[in-house]
Amino acid sequence: MVAQATADHCRSIGDEVVALTRKELDIANAENVRSVVEEHRPDAIINCAAYTNVDGAEGEPERAYAANVTGVENLAKTAKEFGAVFVTISTDYVFDGANGGFYFEGDEPNPQGIYAKTKRKGELAALNANERSIVVRSGWIYGKGGTNFLSVMADLLRDGKRIKAIRDSFGTPTFAGDLAARLRELAELDEPGIFHVTNSGPGTSYLGFAEAVCEMGGFDATLIESVSKDELRRPAPRPASSKLGSLRCEEFGLAPMPDWEDALLRSMNGIQAKYHQ
Ligand SMILES: NC(=O)c1ccc[n+]([C@@H]2O[C@H](COP(=O)([O-])OP(=O)(O)OC[C@H]3O[C@@H](n4cnc5c(N)ncnc54)[C@H](OP(=O)(O)O)[C@@H]3O)[C@@H](O)[C@H]2O)c1
């Protein structure tokens, strides 16, 4: 999802982009990574690949580790060898959610599930292997391509099906298109370290997000059933609140990210044709 948005954005501003699927490049394979980077000699590598099945990771930690730690380390080392800027994406789930408010770049991570733990190890692997690494934490990402909570929700609501939305779990929704533009800016900025990138605003709950989707998409809001996170037990632990705020983007003079409701509306308009034909 984020890879497609990033490739589209970079092409739209005139970059020469080599976008590779897993079949073309297995990031967990060091030789594969080195030969691909040697062939293309990129100025920047933006890693959007990851093992992203949060619940699935509990049952297959080795696969999650291979992509989220070994893969990131392979790319970071190879970027250093070939002099490319390296940007990799991490997650709001590196935090445990105990503070109940926003997490900033300097806050201490405390990942809970296997997915979150591998993502945190991946952050450290990137930063240790390459002093030029840029780690971008984001959260609640939706956009074109793949299955994400907006597409699942909108598909069900369009079909008149009831959905359960958690009222006591909070995050900062992020439109993949906006994240993509910021990833590109950060590659250009070439300042290493951790950056938090989400759409701005106070954040919301899954329930708040679902209500906004109904309002903007013209769906029937009575189809939403409000549930607590404990009612909707899922295999992997998740932070109750993982809202991200950024001090570092401001420090480097980057413009505030668009507001999450504005971003959702733009994204919904983009998919309007699919849901309102
Ligand atoms: N979606 C969210 O809400 C969210 C929130 C916070 C952070 N993030 C992070 O954002 C980044 C992008 O997420 P996304 O939602 O765009 O993920 P996505 O749609 O699931 O895409 C991840 C891609 O990585 C590929 N991949 C997995 N292992 C690989 C390997 N060893 N080598 C090469 N490719 C491999 C996957 O291929 P297969 O499909 O073949 O496995 C998939 O195409 C990830 O780092 C994710 O952890 C996502």
Quick gist of this model?
The protein has 277 residues and is an alpha/beta fold.
Describe this structure as you would to a colleague.
The protein has helices at residues 2-12, 30-40, 61-82, 114-129, 149-158, 176-189, 206-217, 248-251, 260-275; strands spanning 44-47, 85-91, 102-103, 133-138, 141-142, 163-166, 170-171, 174-175, 193-196, 204-205, 224-227, 243-244. It has 277 residues and is α/β, with parallel strands linked by helices. It has one domain (2-146, 171-203, 239-259): 3-Layer(aba) Sandwich (Rossmann fold). The chain has a four-stranded parallel beta sheet with strand order 1-2-4-9, with helices on both faces. It has a two-stranded parallel ribbon with strand order 3-12. The protein has a two-stranded parallel sheet with strand order 5-8. Helix 5 crosses helix 7 (206-217). The two termini are 23 Å apart. NADP nicotinamide-adenine-dinucleotide phosphate binds at residues 1-3, 22, 25-28, 48-52, 67, 71, 89, 91-92, 119, 138-141, 146, 148. NADP nicotinamide-adenine-dinucleotide phosphate (NAP) is lined by residues 1-3, 22, 25-28, 48-52, 67, 71, 89, 91-92, 119, 138-141, 146, 148.
